[in-house]
Amino acid sequence: MNLLIVESPAKAKKIQGFLGSGWTVRASVGHVRDLPGSGQTIPEKYRALPWINLGVDVEGNYRTVYLVYEDKKKIIRDLKHACKDADEVLLATDPDREGESIAWHLAQELGLKAPKRVTYQEITETAIKKAIANPRSIDMNLVAAQESRRILDRLVGYGSSPLVSKALGTSDKRRSHSAGRVQSAALMMLAGREHARMGFASASVNGVKVRIGTAPEFQATLIRLGTQTIATPASFGPDGALKADAQEHLLLSSAQAKEAAGILTNSSLTVVQVSKKPLVRRAPAPLTTSALQQAASKLKFSAKKTADTAQRLYEQGLITYIRTDSPALSDEAVRLGQNVLRELFGAQVLPEQVRRHAAKGNAQEAHEAIRPTEFTAPEQTGLEGDELALYRLIYETTLASLMKDAAGERTSVLLDSGKGHLLAAAGTVITDPGYLQLLKDEEDGEEDASLPALQKQQSIPCVGAEVTSAQSKPPARFTEGKLIAALEKVGIGRPSTYPSILGTLQNRGYVVNEKGALHVTPLGLVATGYLSVQLPSIVDRHFTARMEEDLDRIAGGELRATTYLDTVWKNGLALSIAQAGVAAPQVAVPGFPGAVLSSKNSEVTLSYQGRTAILHEKVLSEELTEKNLERLMNGQAVRGQRASRPKTTGSKSSTRKNTSLA
């Protein structure tokens, strides 16, 4: 009897059906041990170690002590018993750094002297049997990379958490704060956007839109009056003033706009320019983990919901492994996908050459993209609800990646009134829909209306005109999908960590997700205010990205883990932490001089015009406006919820849930 150890019980059941009676398939149920945790019983043999609570001996080449989780002790006992009865033991944990680390920890706890490792990208009978026929040893470079990340996270957390707690204030142990490496950099990115929005000054502009009486009709916009370009919202900066390159733009008054609209109505316009350019909309790449998380946000899925749902699809054998940085498709996947497309649309939708997508430079292990294993049509899978919706997204995106790009033509025209008015219009026509036959390109928004065939010097009628108004808008809030894209772009974190990053920030009160948009709370602003001044390296996205690159080098065998940790910790973060102060941060409310946020006893305080109030934890930063400040200081509600209350001498702190910045 042979023993195969996987991570998930559902996966174990599926694989057991492939292998039959000659095999026993058991699950470790994820990680089985970690560095010592809070409240965990320390075995007698370790208690004398001065660094045991930390779990890392920094001066001893970062030697570690790992303890089995309490709820995994029975699993380890059962696996040890199964190992004794097995002729051969194979470790088949997931094919990434975490999986490699779990395999190593299992080998250590189970006493396997020459552990054999097998990996596979999909849970199909063919893939499983092929993997078993080609075992290898555990890749210690991958293990070292994962362990370095874990050690560094522990050192940063344990080193900086007491400082953050003292600075923000804690009234009891249940309300301690902490700081961490990746989440803090992500929070800083969110806080930067929040500051930009709070300090944004909106500008209003008038304009004129006309209706052209051709067949079909189309609309045009007034862009110049006389020799002056009409100002648009894009002409203004975040301070509400015209940008340097737009100083000469005309701010169209209401009277000028009405006058122009009156002149243009029922007038004749002359086509003075017609330009046509070919348009190509590229077919999407196959899905990586982060791309799936971004795409699933269109389904209103959170990053965690996407990860959980994809895991279930993977364990059912419907899709390939879900943690991957690679958009590549295997030759077999291309063949299967092309066969489906021929049946659905005919061979004409296939490009002359197969489009190949390469992984980005900071990609980790070279896995295949997330794709259907056998390209089963969604309606034939038996799936329902969220699982069906996500599978359909993966299925259609993978097929679309194998189809032709969409092609068309974009036409732009300029129209002259002959009375000093210049107008512009544009339209798009898709001549070959390509992949758009299957997958709507939602990023491009609504299609421009198609324009009729127009010739230069042609005279066309304006049958109506109206005055329009518009405002400049602050930068949009991050959605979970947009934040993931931004984190990936600058190299912060890894796809597998994004759901936990977002979950941590939201669960601990630094960020609130409202209708899909991420709002940084006043507590989040105060926390980043402290970290950016006292521990800037922790929230420096470039510093964090460089650390990720070094972890990749460790995984590739190019860098020793101890060298990396010495550089980043001993010669970097440890020095910053040692020099950090613990004064309570004072964070100015953007756009409102004199309004200041701070923290005491884990509660955010707002000071304004000589008065101080404690903010309720549900008050959002965006509510700290000139209009609401007076109401907040008086303890009145904002948006119908209990807001701040006036601070009085001797008042007791309210009970709050744990808040931390991990």
UniProtKB/TrEMBL annotation:
The active site is at Y321. The record marks H31, R149, R150, D153, Y158, R323, R508 as: Interaction with DNA. InterPro entries: Topo_IA, Topo_IA_2, Topo_IA_AS, Topo_IA_cen, Topo_IA_cen_sub1, Topo_IA_cen_sub2, Topo_IA_cen_sub3, Topo_IA_core_domain. Residues 646-662 have a biased composition (Polar residues). Its EC number is 5.6.2.1. Residues 178-183 are annotated as: Interaction with DNA. The keyword Transit peptide does not apply. Residues 139-576 form the Topo IA-type catalytic domain. It catalyses: ATP-independent breakage of single-stranded DNA, followed by passage and rejoining. Residues 633-662 are annotated as: Disordered. Monomer. Releases the supercoiling and torsional tension of DNA, which is introduced during the DNA replication and transcription, by transiently cleaving and rejoining one strand of the DNA duplex. Introduces a single-strand break via transesterification at a target site in duplex DNA. The scissile phosphodiester is attacked by the catalytic tyrosine of the enzyme, resulting in the formation of a DNA-(5'-phosphotyrosyl)-enzyme intermediate and the expulsion of a 3'-OH DNA strand. The free DNA strand then undergoes passage around the unbroken strand, thus removing DNA supercoils. Belongs to the type IA topoisomerase family. This is DNA topoisomerase 1. It comes from Deinococcus proteolyticus (strain ATCC 35074 / DSM 20540 / JCM 6276 / NBRC 101906 / NCIMB 13154 / VKM Ac-1939 / CCM 2703 / MRP). The gene is topA.
